[in-house]
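Two entries, shown back to back:
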Amino acid sequence: MDSSDLLSILERDPNKVSGAWVFRGTRVPVAAFFENIKDGASIDEFLEWFPGVTRMQVEALLDYELLSLMKAANT
């Protein structure tokens, strides 16, 4: 997944949630996902709490972040 693919699952609009990155089609900030996971929530719990977000969006975001970390480790 490259950054253009990422834009298919995320969006950023200065008039929406103060310009924070959100899951496309929702007002759920991407930061909310990482904060909930950091605090011990499972992906299933997050999806239950934020029903507008899809599992595909979460999995694509995690795949993108993993690839980013792997690229950074190889530079």
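entry 2 starts here
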Amino acid sequence: MIVVTAPTSNIGSQVLENILDSGESIRVIARDPSRMPEQTRKRVEVVEGSHSDLDVVTKAFQGADSVFWLVPADPRAESAEAAYVDFARPGCEAFKSQGVKRVVGISALGRGWPKNAGHVTATLAMDDMIAHTGVSYRALTCPGFIDNMLRQVEVIKSQGMFSWPISGDLKAPTCATRDIASVAARLLLDRSWSGVGSLPILGPEDLSFNDIAQIMSEVLGKPVRFEETAVDALKTRLLSRGMSEGMTQAMINMLVAKNEGMDNREPRTPQSTTPTSFRQWCEEVLKPAVLN
């Protein structure tokens, strides 16, 4: 039995799609099962509720061999620790009480970074908590997602630009969620691994935002430029959209750490180099979104 949390999320839905035809029994935890495609819903067992609820995870993990663990975004949480560590406490209790053997979790690069990096610091603390339950655990440690660029489609369309409070010249890894989901699915279906470890997902190349703008321009057939924005401007914007003070500061702390090179400390290896390039993703995903 494999349990998938957050099955309607970007990554979770792709993980689920990747294992549907495996022949394994699959159970999902969903707060709103109606958001799942009807054909998918018919092929899995659904436990309705949040995986932050002890009763829900205790029921869902009964008889489970492997669990895919992803914490959903909560912009109104009191703090990053509340959003990740506190959210995961019931799950960790259920991993132990229900005898779950293996857990695959979505995590972040940044182990050993000397300063508070907001979301990253809290995510790594969650990893440590999961690891101490006694399960075999693989944390998929990721940089920024290529797919996040879809949040800026409208400004790319209307103004031919995108922005973020990161230096335009800083080359760093970035990865596609499809590749994360592929690695996660492989681990969920593999019963041979054990112990605790991490697996970086670094994409095929390091790119700066200026590199990304150039690739966008070539793929879209129109000029696109990158503009570095001020951290304070982003903070004001996030607060105005209803993000809590604690989560806003966590986001700022993470971005400052990334701008200082946090994601560049992980050595690239054949195992951490995943296939989807930014150019390929632009052709297949961004271009249709911008031109439609």
